[in-house]
Amino acid sequence: MMEPIRPPQNIAIIGAGIAGIACALAISRELSPFVPDLKIKVYERHDVLSTSGGAINLTPVAQRHLAQLGVLNELDRMGPEGGADVDAIELFSMRSGRGIGSINFTDNQGRGFGGYKGRRVMRIALSVAMLTVAERTRNVEIVFGKKVIGGEEFADRAVVRFQDGTEAVGDLVIGCDGVHSAVRTKFVDVNRPAEYTGLSFLQATIDTDSLSSLPHFRTSSLNISRHGSMLASYCDRDREQIFAAAIVQFSREALSLYRLEPGQDWATQNKIRCALREEIRDRFRKCAIPCIKEMIESKADWMLYPVYQVPPGGRWCLNRVILLGDAAHAMPPRDESAAYALDDAILFSRILASYRSEPLTEVFDAYETLRRETINRAFKESRRMWERNRDMGLLEGRLKEWMMTFHLKTNEHAREAAWEFDATKIALPTPAPKGWTHDRLLNASGEDLMALSDTQRTILFDGLKITHGEDSFRQIMQEMDRRYLAQVESSKSEEPKQQEREPLAPFVDTLNSLFQGTETDWGKWGRWDAVIEEGLAPYRGFISKVDRAINLLEFQWVEQPELEGVDAAHVARRFNEKALSRGFATSACLMVTPDSLESVLSWPCLSSVRHERQGIPFVVSVSRRASAPRLPLGLGDEDVAGAGFKGYLNVAVESIVEEFNPIVALQMMNLHTLTVKFRHDNDIWCSSDR
């Protein structure tokens, strides 16, 4: 008879940052009722609590989770150093000084989300508050001066080795040691180092009374320019200090020249400080906001903090070791990094307690399936936002300002929903029937599923819906169907396969049978208009000039029998021959192919389409120059960007109006530059936020 599985008793957490201490506090709260002799040790590589980093933003969800861990009360007891309340982050144009919009942490009545607003607090103050709570927790101990150099797993334990010759042994090891995690790079996923994003923070703390100009914001601001953005926010309750952080593009080669390091002599450090001040002045010297102008002209000690990321898709765990927070999924910060670390800690601790009679591998699986999709979406959104901080040309910078209001409005509902999130209340999956993993389900036969009881099948499917979401659950079911059909297909002889590959009817007749109509002009089927309108809808009703521009938008369809089956070069010749008005006489036209037509018709924006979206709806953009003869590539030309451009590329329909059309109409760049990262002809160009 097998012995029952016991929950972990000795837990080692690597890293005493926000994620590490939050994890210790959350596990103590969730697991202590079931494990009376629970011991949690947190190992920190620094000899004392690190004072590096500036002020961080605590969103409503971050404050909620800190309150649940007992940390928020401790912050409040710190007085002015406990941070400044933030009702909103106001956005301004550094070029004109005008307001662009705001990210509000309160509703129209001034109430926070779920009782909590925002807060800007120095990272060291938050660390001290968390450390104080941890020291009061009876089964949590924090040990400093422990730098990880490696580790090893055994059947019943995991061992972490430190530089000083000691080691930590635990039933469970949790890596919370940040973006440059040693647990990740020396233990869990050795081939996954952090990547530099190309962007950096230049930050400083400035005394409010040193400024002669009145700050233009109430509590916090983000000031936009084409050379990056600058955050300016009070970081103490008495508003005596302003935390300023410029978010700028910085080459990897320049990092070593501008980094202040221990051991540098005074002359070197002074030279670096002067260079950083000059960098700030060069970027923002034309700022139209008086107090920001004063900040960049001041003699503040600016510090450079490169921004690194750990892209999605890597390994998060072994059998007894798991990564949480930035160690697993560091992303470009968007003022919510603390919230994600707290989410991780609370969700993992709840699953650990709920699955206390299950192997740790199942605990890890349940956590990953509940968390990974959310993190992937957040990473994509963070990367999209950070791309706006790269250096831009004058026209692109203006477009960035104009579109910011619409982006804020479009994402408002998603932001507010995220701030209502409570990791203590989210439904957790019930442990699946023994032996039933995600991979086994995908490859299961009907007989395997029928062998489960009704209750077991319900638990299995409900758990997948909770961990993956309804949409992903449907995709799992579709994948099961696909694999089953592939098995059936492989058993067929070649003759039936060949017959099934033959078209059954002309394409227009297929459309008529699918939509039960008589229209043969595919541009009037409503599918194209629906795709375009879905992209335009969020921008309607705010600015009259924008509404007028939308109403003037027109697509001119050219549908002639002689164009059936022609190539891109022929389409380019016809485009060059046509007498077009100024609005249509751009550097490229759009071409509909059978594949692009199918992609648009398959897009589920109308209820008449009965299947899920399997790809991005696209059309083919054809350059005017596609009709010109292409010269053969010479020796070495393969390495020249755009040398192999064929004169056309696939473009996502949803990116045409907002992103692609300005590039074509204003000739902002050559089309071949958009294909530099294409791997093959089937790639589709789309905007960075897709």
TrEMBL record:
The lineage of its organism: Eukaryota, Fungi, Dikarya, Ascomycota, Pezizomycotina. Pfam families: FAD_binding_3. GO terms for molecular function: FAD binding; monooxygenase activity. Residues 11-380 form the FAD-binding domain. It comes from Penicillium patulum (Penicillium griseofulvum). InterPro entries: FAD-bd, FAD-dep_Monooxygenase_BioMet, FAD/NAD-bd_sf. The keyword NAD does not apply. PANTHER family: MONOOXYGENASE (PTHR13789), PUTATIVE (AFU_ORTHOLOGUE AFUA_6G14510)-RELATED (PTHR13789:SF309). Keywords: FAD, Flavoprotein, Monooxygenase, Oxidoreductase. Belongs to the paxM FAD-dependent monooxygenase family. Transmembrane segments: none annotated. This is Monooxygenase, FAD-binding.
